[in-house]
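Hey, I was hoping to borrow your eyes for a little while. I've been puzzling over a protein and I'd love to understand its fold better. The fold is given in discrete form, as structure tokens running alongside the sequence. I'd be grateful if you could look everything over and explain what you see. No rush at all, and the record is pasted right below.
>
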Amino acid sequence: LQIILQGNLEKPDALRQAAASFDYKTLATHSHGLKGMSGDVFPSRLRELAAQTEAEARKEEAEASRHAEQ
């Protein structure tokens, strides 16, 4: 668990930066990685939110930025 957490320390900041600049491609990429990792390690709500953010970012929907801030 410690290795996973250390390897993903930059993810929240990267998600926020991508969301703030409406960089949907980067937002989708980071959300996809978070979705996969969270499915194995964290509660299902985090996985659901990551999946929703990824899907919205791939469609370049503004809601993706709001979800990335959560």
